[in-house]
Amino acid sequence: GWDTHGDNFNAHASRVPKVDQSVSALLEDLHDRGMMDNVLVICMAEFGRTPRINGSIGRDHWPNAWSLAMAGSGIKPGVVVGETNPHGTDVKTEPFEIGYMFHTWYRALGIDPTKTEFMNGTQPLPIAHDDYGPVKELLA
User: What is the end-to-end Cα distance of the chain in Å, rounded?
Assistant: First the structure.
């Protein structure tokens, strides 16, 4: 229900508090149980949303700039990496495509993505794209 091409603000008024409550409860529970060092929590979507409101009072797909939140195993707490321009239309700092995130996540979990592959039938494939690497500022 997050694909709010129309009525964005009313939709988010009911959805955002539910996500905020459930994610914060998950993080608190993991912390209270001493599990934050063993679990990586990632909140993201597959793209961003337009910085401008459309004619249906909604926001459309925007792959030029997007964000995600992470906590837990191997991630430095409180770190922000990246910035958009003042209009939110493009990345102002070095852009990190999703390939960087896979390297970052695997490294945070103690897995070397350059030495690990998975089998697609009989074809071995890398678990992370060779052209990318981890976002080192995010790693604990």
Answer: 34
